[in-house]
Amino acid sequence: MSAIATKTAATAQDRYRAAFEARTQNSGPLAELRRAAFDSFAAVGFPTQRDEDWKYTNLRRLESRSFAPAEAAPVAADESNWIAGAGVRMVLVNGHAMPGLSSASPLPPGVTVATVGQWIANDPAAVAAYIEQHAPTQPSAFEHLSTAFFEDGVVIDIAADTVFDEPIYIVHQWTGSAAAMSHPRVIVRAGRNSRCTLIEHYLGAGDAESLTNTVVSLNLDAGAQVAHYRLQQESSRSFHVGTVRARLERDSRYSCHDVAFGASLARTGLTAKLEGPGAEATLRGLFVPSGSQHLDTYTLVEHVAPHTVSSEEYRGIADGRGRGVFRGKVIVRQDAQKTDSRQSSRNLLLSGTAEIDTRPELEIYADDVKCSHGATTGQLDTTSLFYLRSRGLSEQEARALLIRAFAESILTTIECAPVRNYLEQRLHERFAGDGILS
């Protein structure tokens, strides 16, 4: 690392240390956990491009910024940008729960939705114990930073044999004019043979820069099913880092649709660990960088037990000087015989200055598996354009149709109709402003 880079990193860590020390420091296990987490972050700092997992994403812009912990702020109940009819709603503003904007109706037996802030107030030792118990072997720098600073979030408990078909919709809303950071936590505990749907929606507002550093942990007991929709639509001046970790026991099913439209620089890291025979993970994603946006997606699927299945399909559409990144890694451990894993990355460049880097990987230690991966990056097919124009469509209409078809191969797999309809409209609006879609 150069002397300049070392100085920049040290300065950034000093700024975060000042923000950490300025907080009220209580005693007890949670305070000790926070202190240890911050010390771990300070020791390693932000990842650099020398880290293989961050090879295509430079964080110097983020390192150079200063963010204060975000304060709770009231906002008007403007639901125009929220997903209509999305189910039970929990609203976080600047990372803080807002009960007045959340659903007030009682939940059915077997379903508990609470805030992390309530949990901390009632039993901080239990919060610390849970985080330590479910911490990954090697937490990332951003996970350490989250543990040091998190104040609120959502805890979802689905009891064994409980089927809750109404989605749980979490709105992460930014507001305000000061540069601030939030570190919300979302914890999902799905009991044996339970079923639920989680929608996360990240929205930005205002002209101020912000940092969202969110950590989502999902623990699926045997036979549990969780459908997870993650929509990132933050402002053009924001930084967004999302960490998702799912642990799957025997015969459990986890599906995730991760869609990124927003932020100036965004990174989503999604890990699915298949620990029980019969577990299945399905990951699908769409990232749409334009202007000067940088949208990065990293996935890691780890097959630990035999007879497990994973399927990944990610698509990117880059316009202007936008840059997209997809790196997907599948690890098949030695005992994970009879693994079936498929991975696909397809990308579309709409301008000569757009860029998408894609790198699917397989790391296999078992000898009786069925695994495949593939990646393509290209422009709109000229033959298809010619065919559509020969049928009477204008060039703009033909391009619009091909772009829609490319994206909708992901969107049509979304079973939650309100989410699918919302995303189709946002995709239309995204390109209509550039005159591509009409």
Question: How would you describe the overall organization of this protein?
Answer:
The chain contains nine helices and 21 strands. It is an alpha/beta fold and 438 residues long. 24% of the residues lie in helices and 37% in strands. Strands 1, 4, 5, 7, 8, 10, 12, 14, 16, 18 and 20 form an eleven-stranded mixed beta sheet that branches. It has a ten-stranded mixed beta sheet with strand order 3-2-6-9-11-13-15-17-19-21, with helices on one face. It has two domains: 27-57 and 70-380, no CATH class; 381-438, no CATH class. The relative contact order is 0.09.
How would you describe this structure in keywords?
globular, ten-stranded mixed sheet, 438 residues, 2 domains, eleven-stranded mixed sheet, 21 strands, disordered C terminus, alpha/beta
